[in-house]
Amino acid sequence: MTHRPSFQRYQLDSSSDQYIASFRLATAVNTALAAQQPLVVTGEPGTGKTTLADSIALRLGWGKPLKFVTRSDHLARDCLYTFDSLRRLYDAQVHDERAKDPAVYVRYEALGEAILSPTPCVVVIDEIDKAPRDFPNDLLGILDKEKPSFSVRETGETHTAQHCERFVLITSNSERQLPEAFLRRCVYHHIEFPSRQELERIVSTKFDATKISERFVGAAVGRFEDVRKLRLEKRPSTGELLVWIKVLLAAGVSDKDVETKPLADLHPGTLAKLKGDLEELLKEGSCPPVAS
Question: What is this structure's pTM?
Answer without folding.
Answer: 0.83
